[in-house]
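Prompt: May I have another protein with tokenized structure?
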Amino acid sequence: MLRGIGKAFAVVMLFLLLVGGGFAFFSYLGSSWSYRNELAARAGLLEKEAQRLKEAQEKIRRQLRYYQVPENVVKELRSRFHYRKRNEKMLLLVPGTSQQERR
């Protein structure tokens, strides 16, 4: 009789061990899957940031090429600070109204 109880106990213990091992395995698998998804989302954000930085870099390079031309530097200074040469007259244009807006 003891042998029958021992075998039953061994079978129950083996079953519990398999269930516990399976639970641990699938728990690990689920956590690694969510970690993988987290990393994929983070990689997507980093790719967007890299693209934004590349666009900003290209904009700065265009500005640098523009300002390397001395005439462009003078043009920018004159337009930003309303600088004019001696005896130069400025003409300010104010947007007019059309015939329909007057009515």
